[in-house]
Specification:
181 residues; mainly alpha; two-stranded parallel ribbon; 2 strands; 71% helix; rod-shaped
């Protein structure tokens, strides 16, 4: 009993192994995040171009209507105006739906990357006997000071990028893996 109590006291005096990570820097330098960000920018540019094209086509229809309106009967003009308003509403609804889908895909992609990072940090902590790894960001400064030797940011970035490169080498990219369509 005394021996067990002594072991307990000794274990309480053992310092915890702690490290910290700048999560802003991890995201900024993690290759998978940069790739996902680029894919989302490309997709956003394509969607913007598609929206602009649809709007230009609609505006051309409105201009054509305005040119022909004086030669149309009141009923025909009213019917065409109604069709144009319905088409405009449909275009706006489609754009909203596509934007929501785009935002949802982006959120899912970021969530997946955050889970990859968390899993990597968990594994890193276990392999290197860390009791705690703290994260800090520019938004939430949970580590106000830390010795540089406790800063694990670069080791984690290097490990994440190495693991990501190995995964990319093992698995060819499929259409499901890419957001840019």
């Amino acid at each position: 009993m005394l021996l067990a109590f002594s072991v307990f006291l000794l274990s309480c005096n053992t310092p915890s192994k702690i490290g910290y990570v700048d999560m802003d820097k991890v995201l900024k330098e993690y290759d998978a995040y940069k790739k996902a960000e680029e894919q989302m920018k490309t997709r956003s540019s394509k969607l913007t171009a598609d929206f602009q094209n649809a709007n230009m086509q609609f505006q051309q229809k409105v201009r054509d209507y305005q040119k022909k309106r004086s030669k149309m009967s009141a009923k025909d003009a009213a019917d065409l105006e109604q069709k144009l308003m319905q088409e405009q509403q449909m275009i706006q609804q489609q754009q909203q739906m596509i934007q929501q889908q785009f935002q949802q895909e982006g959120s899912q992609l970021i969530e997946k990357i955050n889970e990859e990072i968390k899993t990597f940090i968990d594994d890193y902590a276990k392999k290197n006997s860390y009791d705690f790894i703290l994260g800090t960001t520019s938004q939430a400064r949970s580590v106000l000071y830390g010795r540089e030797k406790l800063n694990l940011t670069q080791q984690l970035i290097d490990g994440l990028n190495k693991e990501s490169a190995e995964d990319t080498d093992k698995k060819p990219e499929t259409s499901k893996d890419t957001i840019a369509k």
